[in-house]
Task: structure prediction
Amino acid sequence: MLGNQLSWKRKTYIGLMEVLMYLCTGLTAALALFLVGYVLLRGLHGITWQFLSTEPSYLSGTIGILPNLLNTIYIIFATLVLVLPLGIGAAVYLTEYAGNRKIVGMIEYAAETLSGIPSIIYGLAGMLFFSNHLGSCLLAGALTLVIMNLPVVMRTTQESLKTVPQGYREGAFALGAGKWRAIRTVVMPACVDGVITGCILVVGRILGESAALLFSAGFAHALHGVLDGLMRPGATLTVALYVYAKDQGEFGAAFAIAALLMALTVFINLCTALTGKYCKRKNSI
Amino acid sequence: MKKKDWTENIICGIFLVLGLITVGCVLLISVYLIISGIPAIREIGLTKFLLGKEWAPTASQPRYGILPFILSSIYGTAGAILIGVPLGFFTAVYLAKLAPAKIKTVMESVVSLLAGIPSVVYGLAGMMVLVPGIRKFFNVPDGASLLAAMIVLAIMILPSIIHVSMAALEAVPKEYEDASFALGASPLETYFRISVPAAKSGLGAAIVLGVGRAIGEAMAVVMVSGNVANMPSLFASVRFLTTAVASEMAYSGGLHREALFSIALVLFLFIMLINAALHFFLKGHTANSQ
Result:
């Protein structure tokens, strides 16, 4: 009905925009589907128990990624242990203590700047501050990642601290609690979901990070225990993928790692979606 | 009472220090990059460094001109924006305004998946699919080129563009759209002629964010761009500012190494400019929506 009354010019405009919209959405979906499908197709059959549970051996000419898997786990663990107190502390300061608008603005601008700095610059900075003193090792890589992920933990914690009702704090004060006691016993427990969301995001970012680690954590494939491993150079999964694909031409191994990373990405996204849903439900009650 | 005040003050101080660590990190990174980047620029000369067309640090007469890297980074980013922004923009309009709830949820998870895929995986897929594809399709000797880098970057910036644009479009007050419907405009005309201009500062932020992502990406670009220090042209093998740092840091020494730090400093200045622009757009965005 409406269509009949529209002028020819308007109809073309509407038609054109409609076509462009469907085309672009379709293209985006197709690209994602192709990427996931292609990587899984090329890589899945390379993931065998032997591939996951051994270290690379020149003698038998096989490639195993156990050292890289462990390095990734060590670096995630070390980063989280260091970044959580710093990020949560900063968020608590911003939402609970800060009175001075200038300091708040400065901290927030700094966090924004940190999240805009590309990872290759973090890699260089990490090399300059940490690797020059500690040698290139997983710990230097983890410290670099701490700086990089600080804004993420800070932001998610801050968001969830903001949802804690003001009445809780006032209730605690009314019962005679000091500021710190109120924060420790009433405010902090309520921000757990923000911290968990932050953790998941950080794990996802570390899994995908390579440029920041290349110069700070090095790229060795040797197998080490936790404490020993943190002080030695080591490649995480992504760095190993880069080394295998770019320098050694081992595309089978590279695709197998890529497929593994893809599966982990899907898993992490699922976790984020589920915690998001859970928090929403909890907050709405 | 006195004692309690004391502990409270100490704890407040501790939290203040934790809060200021972020500021400290930014200052530390800036100062370190400036200190390590300046010496090589002073030795080579600023104009020779920035406008020199030849990069040959290991030659007997070493030359340190980074104009090819700067131009490649700029062209590559511009190409990625040219391809990625329209693609992301139309997708965002569809998802924010027209898509049925089911398609919207599915596409949102697809977009977050794209955002989560590690950059080396993009690089690997680009290396194995796009590079041979360009070689065959355009009949050029090597597909590892500026064009391949542009396409990979365009796909990599899609998720941020779609997310930010959708948020901006969803924040447009419903009254604007209702008024437009009441005046007889069709839904599509309303969305493109009313909602899009109303969300323009958010859309601007999306583009700036895309620029920042594209100019800072190193690993995916190093894998598909061929990595030779040529002046940029679409099918030439090129090197970006980021990849110049990434590919030579491992074996460089002396002035060469210092020059790489200077390249990082130039990149850092670009990023700071982009951050300032982003800050400006986001501020405009919140001011608009209030």
Q: What stands out?
A: Chain A touches chain B through 88 residues (CB under 8 Å). The CA atoms of residues 94 and 104 of chain A lie 6 Å apart. Residues 66-284 of chain A form a domain with the MetI-like fold fold (CATH 1.10.3720.10). Chain A has 14 helices and no strands.
